[in-house]
């Protein structure tokens, strides 16, 4: 169950799912005052929990996805239902210092709820190392994200060399402007004129990034295709020549894994997530926020991406990321 606060009407509930999976979504219109929003958010979760219990019965396990701002609600549910609490954490704030900048109340609440959790799962070793500062190492287990791959049905690219970025366009975290600047530098120094950088995604910095590409007069080799369906995104990944992940911080980087399992080589930063997938058989790792290394990697990849075969790239990681495999792992956790 979850809530969505971006809604025109004051209140609405949606039920979905079939068989053993049931989903309850509560939509509500936000108030202008943040404090009132937080209270209403908590109240809505309580109402949604009452409805879910009425429809499906009392929960035997409470499973919280991402603690940020939800820790009090999780503790409340654990208390009133007397059920063990499992937490799955993805938030980059534990890696980039954002958590330490939060209020003392939030930090203490997170630590208290972590201490009461029966099990905590994270998606990467780096995130686990950050969380064991607050919880017993024996209670933290790495369970990666589920990963599916696409099939090339259509030719989505028209250039000779096609690089792809798939990201939420938040430049503070994804550092897409750094890629645009390096591409501009390479183009001015004689970059392969058949090169094209496609940026797929939406976000608060989209207009700024589009303006930056236009100001550099590189709109003919840098194109923005906006947000796409997951299926279409997988097709873009499977049909590009290589993927670029220039993030400052990632807890997992699903798009990196999706590219590798599609047989596509990757240029990625050492930012917390891609390190567990990227090796010399499927791409290159560079330091975060390092334009010199990014420039060198781009030059190398443009000249050598054809040396990577799809079969070898796919075989470079163990595919333990299928829905069935991850489902079995959580089933073992629930039963332990």
Task: List the topology elements.
Layout (H helix, E strand, L loop, with lengths): L1 E3 L6 E6 L6 E6 L5 H23 L5 E4 L5 H11 L3 E5 L3 H4 L7 H13 L2 E4 L2 H7 L8 E3 L18 E6 L4 H4 L1 H13 L6 E6 L5 H10 L6 E5 L3 H10 L2 E4 L8 H8 L4 E5 L12 E5 L3 H14 L5 H6 L7 H13 L1
Parallel strand pairs: 1-3, 4-5, 5-6, 6-7, 8-9, 8-11, 9-10, 11-12, 12-13
Antiparallel strand pairs: 2-3
Helix pairs in contact: 2-4, 7-11
Explained architecture:
By secondary structure, the chain is an alpha/beta fold. 40% of the residues lie in helices and 18% in strands. It has helices at 34-56, 71-81, 93-96, 104-116, 125-131, 171-174, 176-188, 206-215, 230-239, 254-261, 291-304, 310-315, 323-335; strands spanning 2-4, 11-16, 23-28, 62-65, 85-89, 119-122, 140-142, 161-166, 195-200, 222-226, 242-245, 266-270, 283-287. The protein has a six-stranded parallel β-sheet, with helices on both faces. A four-stranded parallel β-sheet has the order 4-5-6-7, covered by helices on one side. It is globular, with a radius of gyration of 22 Å. The two termini are 23 Å apart.
Quick summary of this structure?
With 336 residues, the chain is of the alpha/beta class. The chain has helices at 34-56, 71-81, 93-96, 104-116, 125-131, 171-174, 176-188, 206-215, 230-239, 254-261, 291-304, 310-315, 323-335, and strands spanning 2-4, 11-16, 23-28, 62-65, 85-89, 119-122, 140-142, 161-166, 195-200, 222-226, 242-245, 266-270, 283-287. The protein has 13 helices and 13 strands.
